[in-house]
């Protein structure tokens, strides 16, 4: 399990942004979420009778539909690693997983829709480094996508026409 890219929006109350302790804490939180998402993906794959493969198949050249891509959500209780209860919405695509960590007041249906629209576009910004599962995400491309689809961390109701126009720009 490896985190290719992570982005945090906002700063929890009572924390100094960017301090070494805060960065270490964020990294620990990300690793806990990543391990749990990997576990959920493996559990789902085994329950569907599909072997999970660490090998990344051929990456798509155009955005693909992820309507039937396996995914789910789970809650992490308050305490460790997050000070308050959060819900993680995740999506498994090829040999990768995408996740959004949502605060209690956030719309989980909108989070799933956002993730399904974001994931195929992030797939296009991956580069294969060699045979097997070695990939590299271009952070500038990921930042641009997140700035458009999740401005300041706010999930938006987006229509297909807007997404098509955005795809043409990128």
Automatic annotation (TrEMBL):
One of its GO terms (biological process) is double-strand break repair via homologous recombination. It comes from the Eukaryota. GO terms for cellular component: AP-type membrane coat adaptor complex; cytosol; late endosome; lysosome. InterPro entries: AP-5_subunit_s1. This is AP5S1 protein. The lineage of its organism: Eukaryota, Metazoa, Chordata, Craniata, Vertebrata.
């Amino acid at each position: 399990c490896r985190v290719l890219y992570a982005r945090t929006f906002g700063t929890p109350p009572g924390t100094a942004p960017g301090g070494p302790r805060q960065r270490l804490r964020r990294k620990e939180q990300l690793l806990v979420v990543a391990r749990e998402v990997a576990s959920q993906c493996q559990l789902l794959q085994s329950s569907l009778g599909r072997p999970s493969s660490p090998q990344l198949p051929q990456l798509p050249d155009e955005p693909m539909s992820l309507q039937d891509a396996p995914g789910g959500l789970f809650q992490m209780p308050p305490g460790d690693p997050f000070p308050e209860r959060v819900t993680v919405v995740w999506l498994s695509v090829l040999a990768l997983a995408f996740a959004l960590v949502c605060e209690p007041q956030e719309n989980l249906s909108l989070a799933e829709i956002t993730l399904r629209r974001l994931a195929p576009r992030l797939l296009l910004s991956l580069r294969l480094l060699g045979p097997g599962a070695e990939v590299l995400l271009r952070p500038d491309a990921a930042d641009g996508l997140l700035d458009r689809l999740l401005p300041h961390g706010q999930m938006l109701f987006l229509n297909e026409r807007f997404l098509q126009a955005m795809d043409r720009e990128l």
